[in-house]
Write a structure and sequence with these properties.
2 copies of one chain form a homodimer. The first copy, chain A, is an alpha+beta fold and 741 residues long. The first copy, chain A, contains 19 helices and 27 strands. An 8-stranded antiparallel beta sheet of chain A has the order 7-8-9-10-19-16-15-12, with no helix packed on it. In chain A, strands 6-11-18-17-14-13 form a 6-stranded antiparallel beta sheet, with no helix packed on it. A 5-stranded antiparallel beta sheet of chain A has the order 1-2-3-4-5, with no helix packed on it. Chains A, B: GO terms for molecular function: lyase activity.
Chain lengths: 741, 741
């Protein structure tokens, strides 16, 4: 803090520019990502440390294949097409080759980078804006400026790495033909992107700023840090201020976080290496460190990042931006051993001093911990007051059960209309799921690999998520601006472990006059096979509505207590808009009683038990209607439909038993939980009972009024009175004498 | 052969019974599965050999859990229910405990077996026939006799193992209360099963025969070997004669083979141990050895047995019957090192001398080969003249590509109407698939875990397979008796390796007046990413018919050249009977041109390119119509529909490119093959051209007349003349200078 204050003082006194020029005057190369000293240390330890050895072996093998083929620099092509992919591949290869030249001293790598750069220098000046940009700011090599920035970030590292090896004439030619015009294009024609508070903006400022450092243009660095007009309303610092909550949670969610971390840490490293006096890693109470933790700590036990907002179902912490951030945070902060568990899942390190530090610590650790995150909540919004995201966790390593709930901000253009959405990860898989984005990323025949139309018409809509839908419309009627102006609100979060953990949040006004509160509990009872999820979803409204409560699962329906029957000879869409037009209605049943539905997913059974309410409809659906191009996956869903004003959906999801088809074993295919009963709910509290086989009962009491862990509550429903202290209480859970895990 | 002749002579002279009694007079226990000497050797080497150590550790750990709980012997219950499973678990535990007692000398195991046997001795005499047998011969403990026989096979081994440890009084009580009445029940009330040429019959004779050896009832052994009336028309020898082809292929297919091998090898071991002079392992030119090879050599590279006829999709060579047979064949025959590759996949051994032999050889081998089977054909039918099954293979270990075609017998009650059906295994998965059985095995809420009604109405029908369907009816109109009377016929098989392998077979008269010939080629061309499948399916008929050519795949449609469009707002079943009532029609298009359809499965793209024909219809379907109980999986299919008399479906399945969603990489999503052209086809030959990108061409010539590898053929189609020698020829394939594999 002190150092930052001094720097700001220096800036105000007009000293900063001068000091800056002194730094840049030092003719040191390489510097922007790796130094000669680091390269020497990597060379020395190349065979010593497991993760470094593995990484180097892979990268060298890849480059051997590359060096065996001629360099190819095609004219620009369409998104996802061959030329597009070739230019992407080229920057990846230059980046690797540059670092390998530093580490090994083998001039073949340097020649490769030079020859490719000379090729680009021959082509680039002739290029105009890319003709197929489609509503985006174009690059010249690529249809969108973003790719051009990513190209430059990687390429400038490669250039820096061979800078001293290049002739002065070649350097001048390359800088004049490629780096200067490209940086100029990004800053000027691309000013909108450059000044955006968005990950595209971060790539832009990182590209320009890193290039400014390497080729000695301090003015570019200033613009990169403080925006085109250097006022600080945009640029890197503004992005650090506004794109993360105070907890480090990235507002677009983890899938984009893994991509945003990449330029944040590339540029941060460059700043630290050229201007350590800026104290970039201490900035905003170490926001860069928090950003890394708030990304990896959202990961499921297998390392996959939860698909919140537009996201693939498989993106994971092995993504290069996360590997870079993990290694840098380990090296630049306190060397947290928990990050070695992350490095273990990653199985690789970055090729600079930070990667070396991780590789060394990994091998020298007496025991590398398995990646096991605790229950954790991240606030959302730049001020941390716009809701958040909560994770309840129990178990160790890959066997963890995870329940997450999303109650933060909309999340910009990739946001989904999914407040109070939840997911359940259990037994190594996403059991209650998010559809992810509707996109076959980079698959050229599928709409050029871009987002598919069904991303808007289905994947973003509320019904595609596990949260209550009102009147077959989406939250905010799928109006993004309206959604951005609101946020969910946290009620309470208790992730201290123990047999019961709980979190509660609200989403008010996402439909006019409708307020919602969801309370999720993760309960471990010695009489049950596995931890179960209890869900109290309370809706209050000023008038009657239809409420649809959907669960998206995978696997096969096994049993239900309704005698539900699939339609034999005709399927129709469930609705006409807001995603309902994409769901085939497969079956419908009516009941006034408790609903029970069992399905089989992997080696485990799951039963959903929903408290009774009059005139309940249960609908089985399958995604795929209104999908002429077969863009959607044919996945199942179940929903419980009710009409009402104030209503509490109370339910339990119970994993149970074991199935192994190959071994032909099936155990406990029927649930233990027999019923859920709503005792009562009001503005003050909700009280629910869960009844198990043989009659055992849990009583669950949740405070609906203001959160206060010390407040004493007494409510009466019918002739029964309930008292508890704090935000919630659960009675009747049997704790195993020795914990199962 | 000589020894068998002598034995038969002895039998005719009435000597055999005497010699037999002498053998049985020896008071040796244990003997039926393990001897005291073997047990001592296992004890001595318990920690030495990997596979033995692993197996023992697992079995001991399992038994520790068992010993910690009270013994439970419930009254008989329904199929798949708790009691049913408990009795199954009991025999498994007694079997393990008996062997562990022998190996470790720990009396806790012996006590466990005794206490459980005494429990059964207390209950069994009170039991009548199981009340819920439903069209099957009942047991007393179980609803079907089969389970009772499996119980007895395992339990008699356990009894033999603790025989000497038991008091004479206990032995007398147990034999009188359990083994004698149970064996009597199987031989008498169960005579139909006991005398059946069927795997149920093998379990019955093994149970009775092994019990006869252990408790000294030579008459039972005689009946087990030669049938109730000892005439040899039924019993073990007749089963060995009739259930396997001369190549050892089991007529019900691999899924049931893995189950049938179990009693075959249990009983064979008993015979060899009590009466080695019978030379059971040499019987029928070593048919037991062939039976093991003809099972494991059908396995896909991951060890999964191909789902032919009623079968699960996951049953594999780790099944206990296959482990037993593998170890016994290794020990009793020539110790083939290739079987160590099988043992590697199994990761376990049986706990007797055979298992020890494998464990020892496994650790002592300088290198354990990966399980890599060559291309191979097995004839079908007891005489080997009723068609067969062919496997074309290329590649090593788990990376193999496998094409299989089924052209043998129907296969009894579990047979499917699927002659000329084929499957493709590629990139570690079943790419062109068989549905398997419609059954959630042992899942009690799903119809008691039994075969579901949809097994008859869908899974067995021709349309559920990858073979041409005529007039929307199944082969033999799904009449089993009619199907049993026929078989496919092999035409030729060339699995010698090299860039082109091929197999061809016929199915004539499965529809009245309709003959079929399918020729499958596996082609490796240096210009293509992976081996491709070429399929020439020729149908000839005496009148016009509708021909449907379906492929069952998984994954997502990516591209087609027809602009095919899914129905947006209504789905109807594709037909009304023979399985068609279970398929939702999702889309339909018409074309007179070449059909191309690309889908994505796992990390690879697949394109099906079908030669043009006028008025072709292409239909996309999805399983799940007419399925009120959600018993079927919602899997996709594509079919090409044509009308004609004589028609050749010529097509190519090309795997290509690479997709990795997590890494966001997509390469070569479009195919290289551009067209398939039928040049001509006649009774003499079929000639087809495959055309690739840039115009390269393969010319494929297949002989349709009698097979003769040396015959010279010349045919003229239009103005082109083609000449070749042998059953087929392919021109234009470019062979890689250094093979990819």
């Amino acid at each position: 803090m002190m150092r930052r204050t001094l720097l700001l003082l220096g800036l105000m006194l007009g000293l900063q520019g001068t000091a800056f020029l002194e730094v840049l005057a030092q003719p040191r190369h390489p510097r922007v990502f790796i130094s000669a000293e680091e390269a020497a240390a990597l060379r020395e330890n190349a065979e010593r440390y497991t993760l470094l050895r593995t990484t180097l072996a892979r990268v060298r093998a890849e480059m051997e294949e590359v060096l065996a083929k001629p360099i190819e620099i095609p004219p620009p092509g369409e998104a996802g097409g061959y030329e597009h992919e070739r230019h992407k591949q080229n920057y990846r290869e230059m980046f690797k080759a540059g670092l390998l030249y530093q580490i090994t001293g083998d001039e073949r790598y340097a020649r490769f980078v030079r020859d490719m750069l000379m090729g680009y220098a021959a082509m680039y000046p002739e290029l105009g804006p890319h003709p197929r940009s489609e509503r985006q700011i174009p690059g010249k090599l690529f249809h969108q400026l973003l790719n051009e920035c990513v190209w430059l970030v990687h390429t400038i590292v490669a250039y820096d790495a061979i800078y001293n090896w290049l002739s002065e004439a070649d350097r001048a030619h390359i800088e004049a033909s490629v780096f200067r015009p490209m940086a100029s294009w990004i800053m000027n024609e691309g000013a909108y992107e450059f000044n955006r508070i968005h990950n595209h903006g971060t790539w832009a400022v990182a590209a320009v700023g890193m290039t400014g450092y390497v080729i000695g243009e301090p003015d570019w660095v200033e613009k990169a840090l403080y925006g085109s007009n250097k006022e600080g309303k945009s640029g890197f610092y503004a992005q650090l201020d506004q794109l993360f909550s105070p907890d480090g949670y990235y507002m677009e969610g983890p899938y984009y976080a893994r991509y945003a971390l990449w330029p944040f840490f590339f540029f941060a490293e460059a700043i630290e290496r050229y201007e350590p006096e800026r104290g970039i890693y201490a900035y905003r109470d170490s926001i860069l460190k928090k950003a890394l933790y708030a990304t990896v700590q959202t990961a499921f036990p297998d390392g996959v990042l939860p698909p919140l907002n537009d996201a693939s179902l498989t993106m994971d912490i092995r993504a290069p931006g996360v590997v870079l951030a993990t290694d840098v945070v380990f090296a630049r902060y306190e060397g947290d051993p928990a990050l070695l568990g992350v490095a273990h899942e990653q199985g690789q390190v970055v090729l600079n001093g930070a990667g070396l530090a991780v590789a060394k610590a990994y091998d020298e650790a007496s025991e590398v911990p398995r990646m096991t995150w605790p229950s954790v909540e991240f606030t959302d919004g730049a001020d941390g007051r716009r809701g958040g995201i909560g994770f309840l966790r129990t178990g160790v390593g890959r066997d963890q059960t995870v329940v997450l709930m999303k109650y933060g901000v909309h999340g910009l253009g990739h946001g989904h209309f999914d407040k109070l959405h939840f997911m359940l990860y259990d037994n190594g898989r996403q059991v209650i799921r998010d559809y992810g984005f509707a996109r076959f990323i980079n698959v050229e025949p599928k709409y050029g690999g871009r987002y598919l139309p069904e991303n808007e018409s289905y994947a973003k809509q509320t019904i595609a998520h596990n949260t209550v839908v009102v009147d077959e419309t989406s939250q905010n009627r799928a109006d993004r601006d309206e959604a951005e102006a609101m946020s969910g609100q946290r009620h309470f979060f208790d992730g201290r472990g123990g047999p019961v953990q709980a979190m509660s949040a609200r989403a008010n006004g996402y439909w006019p006059g409708v307020n919602m509160q969801r309370t999720l509990l993760l309960v471990e009872d010695a009489r049950l096979d596995y931890p179960v999820v209890v869900d109290l979803f309370r809706v209050t409204a000023d008038t009657m509505h239809q409420y649809d409560y959907p669960l998206h699962f995978l696997g096969q329906p096994i049993w239900d207590n309704l005698g539900i029957r699939g339609y034999p000879d005709q399927l129709r869409p469930l609705g006409t808009d807001f995603g309902y037009q994409h769901i085939w209605e497969e079956a419908r049943a009516r009941t006034d009683s408790v609903v029970q539905f069992t399905w089989l997913d992997g080696s485990r059974y799951y039963t959903w038990t929903v408290a009774a309410a009059p005139a309940t409809e249960v609908i089985l659906g399958r995604i795929g209607a209104g999908d002429p191009r077969f863009n959607l996956r044919r996945e199942p869903m179940i929903l419980v439909r009710r009409r009402g004003r104030d209503h509490l959906f109370a339910s339990v999801i119970e994993p149970h038993g074991y199935f192994n088809e190959a071994r032909e074993i099936s155990l406990r295919a029927r649930p233990q939980v027999q019923a859920v009963r709503v005792i009562g709910h009001s503005e003050a509290a909700s009280v629910v009972e869960v009844v198990g086989k043989g009659g055992w009962t849990w009583t669950i009491m949740v405070t609906n009024g203001p959160a206060d862990p010390d407040a004493r509550h007494t409510v009466t429903f019918g002739n029964r009175t309930f008292s508890w202290t704090g935000n919630y209480a659960v009675e009747g859970v049997v704790v195993a004498s020795d914990s199962r895990r």
